[in-house]
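HTH luxR-type domain-containing protein, pasting as requested.
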Amino acid sequence: MAVMIGDAPSTDTVVAAMKLGAVDVLAIPVDHENLLRVVREGLQADVHFHAAKGGRRAVDVLGFSELTSREREVLQMVADGQSNKETGRALKISPRTVEVHRARVMAKLGARNAADLMRIVLTT
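Structure tokens follow.
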């Protein structure tokens, strides 16, 4: 998934970006809410595209029922873009404990990395 960001992209540049697979073209200065929306939609489309090609489908992801309440809290805060420090402060636990919970969430959901975890969260 790609998003093109440019000062004042010309029509030719936009067309070229779309042909290369860009999901959207944004002009600088970038509205952060719009960028977040575009990225979420792009990730959702990417996961659904791969599911249609025989990849892992979001509904096949097991492990949500195995999450503890604390792991669900940490997952929600990670999905909201909170750092380990911010999550730790909000939940009154150390950032290291947040890392442990986050690692367990990733293991239970089968996420290989943070980007994979976000794909799972955004498509379920």
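Note for the archive: DSSP finds six helices and two strands in the chain.
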